[in-house]
Design a protein that fits this description.
The complex is a heterotrimer of chains A (77), B (437) and C (229).
Chain A: E1 3-5, E2 14-20, H1 24-32, E3 40-46, E4 53-57, E5 60-64, H2 66-69, E6 72-76
Antiparallel strand pairs in A: 1-6, 2-3, 2-6, 3-4, 4-5
Chain B: H1 2-21, H2 25-44, E1 45-46, H3 55-63, H4 69-106, H5 112-130, H6 133-149, H7 151-165, H8 173-178, H9 183-188, H10 196-205, H11 215-225, H12 230-254, E2 266-268, H13 276-295, H14 297-310, H15 314-321, H16 333-342, H17 348-356, H18 363-374, H19 378-390, H20 395-405, H21 408-436
Helix pairs in contact in B: 4-5, 4-6, 5-14, 6-13, 10-12, 11-12, 11-18, 11-19, 12-19, 15-16, 16-17, 19-21, 20-21
Chain C: E1 5-13, H1 19-27, E2 31-35, E3 42-50, E4 53-59, H2 71-83, E5 87-93, H3 97-109, E6 114-119, H4 121-126, E7 130-131, H5 133-140, E8 144-146, H6 155-167, H7 181-195, H8 198-203, H9 206-214, H10 218-226
Parallel strand pairs in C: 1-4, 1-5, 5-6, 6-8
Antiparallel strand pairs in C: 2-3, 3-4
The chains are: A alpha+beta (77), B mainly alpha (437), C alpha/beta (229).
C-alpha cells in the first residue's frame, strides 16, 4: 500500500493513518486528538490562504497546519 | 535515593520499550487507550453506515469556503463593529449627559474645592471612563456570540496563514481586530490563545491598533491641519499602527519571546445556537472586570490628576516634561499636560486642550487655536498624532495588561517601550519632515 | 435544621463539550471567577444545594488530555490528583464520543470517583447514533447520565448520582487498562519501586505514576526530582 504524508493529500482524499511522527508536544497533541495509527482520516478542505487544512477523524473535524500534517504517514485508500 | 532509582528505572523501561515497539511508549499507551474505547463503542453504540451530512457541515461549505471564507470573515467583523457602535452611541450619550448633569449640580456645592472635586474630579473623570461601558459590554456580547456558536475557531482557521507569517497564531487575529474598537476587551480576548508566548506577544502589540478613543484626536488634527487630505491622514494613522504592530510582533518573537509558535491542531466544533444565559454570563464575567477597575485604579488616577490641576501643580509639571518633546516639535507645556492627561483615556487629550484653550470648544475652532497659539505646523500636528497613537496606552489598558499578564514586569515594560517608541517615531517624523519643508 | 454536608466536585471535559452550560445549570448565579494560584488560568467555582448537601462545584479548564504540555492540563489534573474531590463529573459530547472518552479513560486511570455526563444526546440522535447507555455504563463501570444541558435536561439526575457517589452508595471500582504484556511488565517494575516510597504512594496512585513516567511526563519527572531527599 502506498503511503503519503497527510500534508500531501488533496481535498476529499482518504486514508488510514500508518504512523505518527514528530516529537515532543506536537506528537503528543496529535495522539491525544485521536490521530493514532489505524484510524481513518479524510481531508475535507484547505483554508482559503492554502494553509492550514481541515480533516475528518473519529467522526469530528480537526484543523492542522501542513507542517504539522507532515508528521503523519497515511496509507491512501 | 529511591527517587533517583525510579528515574533510572524509567530511562531503562523507555529504552527497552522503544527497542521492542520501534515507537515511543507514549504512542503505544495512546493507541491502547483509543483501542479500548473503540472496542467499548462497538458494543455500546451504533452509527449509521454512511455519516449523515449535518447542517453544520453545510454551513461550513459556505462560511469557510475557499473563495468566500475571507470575504465572509471580513463582513462578519464589520457587522460586529457596526452592531457595537450603532447600539452603544445613544447609550454613551446618555451616560455622558447623566454624568455631565451631576457634575453641573455638584459645582454648586460649597466649599468650592469640594464642589470642584465632586464635579470635575469624580463625575467628570469617572464619567469619561464609564462612557466606555456600553461599547465594551456590547463588543463582548457580540464576541461571546461568535465564540459560543463556534465561528471563532473558523476565523482562526481562515486567518492562521497570515498570522503565522508574522510569527503569531490564527487566534491572534480577532484580538487585533477588536483593538480597533477598544484595547481593553481586545487584550482580554487573547485568553483564547493557548501558547503563552503567542498570547503575550499579542498583548504587547495590541495597543498599536488605534482604538475608538484615538479617532477623535485624529479627526481634530487632520481637520485643522490637513484640510485637503483629512481621510488619508486618518487612514495613515491606522496603517502606521498596523505596521508597527507587525514589526514589533516580529521583533518580540525573535528576541524576548523567542520560541516556536503554538501549534494549530484545533477542533472545529459543530455550530451551535448559543443560549441567552450563556451569552449574558460570558459578557458579564469579562465586562465586570472593567467596571471593577473603573472603581479602583482609574478612580485613584482621576483623584490624583484633579488634585494636581486644582493645586496648580499641573503647569510646572508640564513645563518640566515639555523639553523632552522638543526634538519632536511639540515641546510646549500644554502638549505635555495633554499627553499626561491622555493616560486616563486617550480622548482626554482633546478635553485637556479644550480646558487649556477655553473659548474654542468646538472641534474645528480648537484645532486652529492650537495651531495659532502654539505655532504648530501640519508636520508637528502629524508627529503629535503619531505620539498619541503609540505612547503608553490608557490607564484602563495598562490595568488590563497587568491583570492578563499577571506581571508588573511586563506591565512596566509596555509603558516603557511604547513611550520610547512613540518618542522615536514622532521625532523621526518631525526631523525628517523638517528637511523637506 | 440539620447542618448541610459539604462536598466538593470537579467538572472536567473537553472544550466544546457543553461544560460551561452544565456549570451554569448547576450553580446558577452563585458563581465566582478567580485565577488558579500562580497562573493566569481562569478558575470558576460555584455552589449548589441538593438534598441536604452543600455542593461546591469547581469548573476545571476544558482539556482534551492530561499531559504536561499545557498549563490548562496541568492545572486540571493537579486538582483531580491532589485535591481528590468527592466526585469528578466528566462532561462528554455524545455526538463525538470516541475522542471525548479519551479523557474519561484517563480520569478512570487516575482512580477518581467518576461520573460520566453524556451531554448533547439530542445531537447524537439527530446524527443517527444509537447509544446504549446502560451498556456503556456497565462497560466503563461508572455511572453514566444522559443529558441535554442547553435545554437543562438531566441536571436532576446528575445531582442524584453526585449525591449517591458522595454518600458512598456507589463505590468506584479499580480500573485497569491493559497496555499489553511488554508495557505491563515495565509498569509493574516502576510500580514496585514507587510503592516502596511512602510519601509518593500516599499522594499518587502508584500505577498512574508509573504510566505517566512511561509517557515521559515532564511534570511528574520534575516532581520526582524536586522532592528528592
Amino acid at each position: 500500500m502506498p503511503t503519503k504524508l497527510l500534508s500531501e493529500l488533496k481535498s476529499k482524499e482518504k486514508g488510514k493513518i500508518a504512523k505518527v511522527g514528530g516529537g515532543g508536544s506536537i506528537h503528543r497533541r496529535l495522539l491525544d486528538m485521536g490521530l493514532v495509527s489505524g484510524s481513518e482520516i479524510e481531508v475535507e478542505r484547505v483554508a482559503p490562504l492554502g494553509d492550514p487544512m481541515q480533516v475528518r477523524i473519529k467522526g469530528y473535524h480537526l484543523t492542522l497546519r501542513k507542517e504539522e500534517a507532515a508528521n503523519i504517514q497515511v496509507e491512501v485508500i | 535515593m529511591n527517587r533517583e532509582e525510579i528515574l533510572r528505572a524509567q530511562e531503562k523501561s523507555l529504552a527497552h520499550l522503544r527497542s521492542v515497539y520501534r515507537e515511543d511508549a507514549e504512542t503505544v499507551i495512546a493507541d491502547a487507550r483509543y483501542g479500548f474505547i473503540s472496542g467499548l463503542l462497538t458494543e455500546a453504540m451504533r452509527k449509521p453506515a454512511i455519516e449523515r451530512r449535518t447542517i453544520s457541515d453545510l454551513i461550513d461549505k459556505v462560511l469557510i469556503n475557499r473563495w468566500l471564507g475571507i470575504p465572509i470573515f471580513l463582513a462578519l467583523l464589520y457587522g460586529v463593529f457596526q452592531f457595537t457602535f450603532t447600539v452603544s452611541v445613544p447609550l454613551m450619550d446618555w451616560i455622558d449627559e447623566g454624568f455631565g448633569w451631576f457634575a453641573d449640580q455638584a459645582t454648586t456645592i460649597s466649599p468650592e474645592w469640594l464642589g470642584s472635586f465632586i464635579g470635575d474630579g469624580i463625575f467628570g473623570g469617572l464619567g469619561s471612563v464609564l462612557v466606555f461601558v456600553p461599547p465594551i459590554f456590547l463588543l463582548f456580547l457580540a464576541l461571546a456570540f461568535l465564540e459560543d456558536c463556534g465561528y471563532l475557531a473558523r476565523a482562526a482557521f481562515v486567518m492562521d496563514r497570515l498570522m503565522h507569517r508574522i510569527g503569531l497564531h490564527g487566534r491572534s487575529f480577532i484580538p487585533m481586530m477588536l483593538g480597533f474598537g477598544c484595547n481593553v476587551p481586545a487584550i482580554m480576548a487573547t485568553r483564547t490563545i493557548e501558547n503563552p508566548k503567542d498570547r503575550l506577544t499579542t498583548i504587547l502589540i495590541n495597543p498599536f491598533m488605534s482604538c475608538g478613543a484615538r479617532l477623535p484626536i485624529y479627526i481634530l488634527f487632520a481637520g485643522a491641519f490637513f484640510t485637503a487630505h483629512q481621510g488619508l491622514v486618518v487612514f495613515s494613522m491606522y496603517a502606521m499602527g498596523i505596521i508597527l504592530a507587525i514589526i514589533m510582533g516580529l521583533v518580540f518573537r525573535k528576541t524576548l519571546l523567542r520560541g516556536p509558535s503554538g501549534h494549530f491542531v484545533m477542533e472545529l466544533p459543530p455550530y451551535r445556537l448559543p443560549t441567552i444565559t450563556g451569552l449574558v454570563v460570558h459578557m458579564w464575567e469579562r465586562g465586570k472586570v472593567f467596571l471593577v477597575r473603573a472603581g479602583t485604579i482609574i478612580f485613584a488616577a482621576v483623584v490624583l490628576i484633579w488634585l494636581l490641576d486644582y493645586t496648580g501643580a499641573l503647569e510646572p509639571i508640564g513645563r518640566a516634561i515639555a523639553p523632552i518633546f522638543s526634538p519632536a516639535g511639540f515641546g510646549q507645556w500644554q502638549a505635555a499636560v495633554a499627553l499626561v492627561f491622555g493616560l486616563l483615556a486617550k480622548e482626554v487629550v482633546i478635553g485637556t486642550f479644550g480646558t487649556l484653550f477655553t473659548g474654542a470648544e468646538e472641534l474645528g475652532g480648537l484645532g486652529d487655536v492650537i495651531g495659532f497659539d502654539l505655532g504648530w505646523t501640519a508636520l508637528i500636528a502629524f508627529a503629535f498624532m503619531a505620539m498619541t497613537l503609540i505612547y503608553v496606552p490608557c490607564m484602563a489598558v495598562i490595568g488590563t495588561i497587568r491583570r492578563e499578564t499577571n506581571s508588573w514586569k511586563w506591565t512596566v515594560f509596555v509603558i516603557g517601550y511604547t513611550l520610547v517608541l512613540g518618542w522615536i517615531v514622532a521625532t523621526l517624523i518631525y526631523q525628517i519632515g523638517s528637511l523637506f519643508t | 435544621m440539620r447542618m448541610a454536608k459539604e462536598i466538593t466536585i470537579a467538572l472536567a471535559g473537553n472544550p466544546n463539550s457543553g461544560k460551561t452550560t452544565v456549570f451554569n445549570n448547576l450553580t446558577g448565579a452563585r458563581q465566582h471567577v478567580g485565577n488558579w494560584p500562580g497562573v493566569t488560568v481562569e478558575k470558576k467555582e460555584g455552589t449548589c444545594r441538593y438534598q441536604g448537601y452543600a455542593i461546591k462545584v469547581v469548573d476545571l479548564p476544558g482539556v482534551y488530555s492530561f499531559t504536561a504540555y499545557s498549563i490548562d492540563e496541568v492545572v486540571a489534573r493537579n486538582f483531580v490528583v491532589e485535591e481528590k474531590p468527592d466526585a469528578v463529573v466528566d462532561i462528554v459530547d455524545a455526538s463525538n464520543l470516541e475522542r471525548n472518552l479519551y479523557l474519561a479513560v484517563q480520569l478512570m486511570e487516575m482512580g477518581t470517583r467518576l461520573i460520566v455526563a453524556l451531554n448533547m444526546m439530542d445531537q447524537a440522535e439527530s446524527r443517527g447514533y444509537k447509544i446504549d447507555v446502560p451498556q456503556l455504563s456497565y462497560l466503563l463501570d461508572v455511572p453514566v447520565v444522559p443529558m441535554v444541558a442547553n435545554r437543562n435536561r438531566g441536571t436532576q439526575e446528575l445531582l442524584e448520582e453526585i449525591v449517591k457517589m458522595a454518600d458512598g452508595e456507589v463505590q468506584p471500582r479499580k480500573f485497569r487498562l491493559d497496555y499489553g504484556r511488554e508495557v505491563e511488565e515495565e509498569i509493574a517494575k516502576l510500580e514496585e519501586l514507587i510503592s516502596q516510597d511512602d510519601e509518593l504512594s500516599q499522594r499518587y496512585s502508584p500505577r498512574w505514576l508509573a504510566v505517566k513516567l512511561l509517557e515521559g511526563d515532564e511534570e511528574v519527572v520534575k516532581t520526582l526530582r524536586a522532592t528528592k531527599e
